[in-house]
Amino acid sequence: MIVDEQRAEHGAPRRWVWVGAAAVLVLGGILTFGLLRQQQVPAPPLPTPVGSSVPPASVPPPTATGSATPEPSRDDPGEERAGLDESAEAAQGVVVHIASIEKVEGDAQGAGEVAGPALRLGVEFKNSTSEEQSLVGATVNLFYGPDRTPAAPLDGPGVVDFAKSLAPGKSALGVVVFSVPLDQRSQIAVEVTFKAGVPVVVFEGKP
C-alpha cells in the first residue's frame, strides 16, 4: 500500500508534464497553420479612385478647352480673298488682279467643250521683286452660283496663255474663257494660283 501511494504521488506530476507538453504542441500547430493561411491568401487589390483614367499614349494632350491639338497641315497653304475689282498678293512681291471680265459667246473647239454663254477674264500678274518669277505653275479656275459649281474652261474666243516667266518690274496678262450660264452669274469665285506652296487667291463678287 505504501509503494502504491508513492507511485501515485510520483506519477501525478509526470502526467501533468505530458499534458502540458501536448498542449504546447497543439498550440504551436495552430499558430503555424494560421501563419501558412496568411501567406497563401493574396492581398486584396488597391481600390481605383472613382473617375480617374489614364489616357492612351497615342492620344495627344488636351488643350485648355479640352480638345486635342490638331496638327497643322503642311500641304495646304491656305487662301487669300479679295473682291473682283481688288488686287491681292499672290506671293511675296507678286501681285495679281482681274484686269477685265467680258460676257462672250464661248467657242467649242476642244473635245467635250460646249459652245454657249461664257465669261472671258483677263488675269494679270505684276512682279515687284528684283528677281525673275516663273509663271509655269499659274492656273485660273472659276466657280459660279450659290453651290460654287465648277465652270468648264473653253478654248475661245481670245484665249491667251501666260508667259513662262515674269521679269522684275514687269506685268504679264493671261486671258481665260469659262462657260457660265446666264442665270448663274449673280455670284462667281475666281481662284488664281501663282505656284505651288503659296496661298490661292480667291476673287469673289458679281461680274
Tell me the domain tally: 2
Q: What can be said about the biggest beta sheet?
A: 5 strands, mixed
The name CATH uses for the topology of the largest domain is Immunoglobulin-like
Mean pLDDT reading? 77
CATH class of the largest domain: Mainly Beta
Structure write-up:
The structure is a single chain. With 207 residues, this protein is α+β, with helices and mostly antiparallel strands. It folds into two domains: 1-43; 79-205, Immunoglobulin-like (Sandwich). 19% of the residues lie in helices and 34% in strands. The chain has a five-stranded mixed beta sheet, with no helix packed on it. It has a five-stranded antiparallel beta sheet with strand order 2-3-4-10-8, with no helix packed on it. It starts with a helix and ends with a strand.
Write the layout of secondary structure elements.
Elements (H helix, E strand, L loop, with lengths): L1 H39 L38 E5 L3 E5 L2 E13 L9 E12 L5 E2 L4 E6 L4 E2 L1 E3 L10 E2 L4 E9 L8 E6 L6 E6 L2
Parallel strand pairs: 1-12
Antiparallel strand pairs: 2-3, 3-4, 4-10, 5-9, 6-7, 6-11, 8-10, 11-12
Question: TL;DR of this structure?
Answer:
The chain has one helix at 2-40; strands spanning 79-83, 87-91, 94-106, 116-127, 133-134, 139-144, 149-150, 152-154, 165-166, 171-179, 188-193, 200-205. It is α+β, with helices and mostly antiparallel strands and 207 residues long.
Keywords for this entry:
Immunoglobulin-like, 19% helix, 5-stranded antiparallel β-sheet, 207 residues, disordered N terminus, alpha+beta, 5-stranded mixed β-sheet
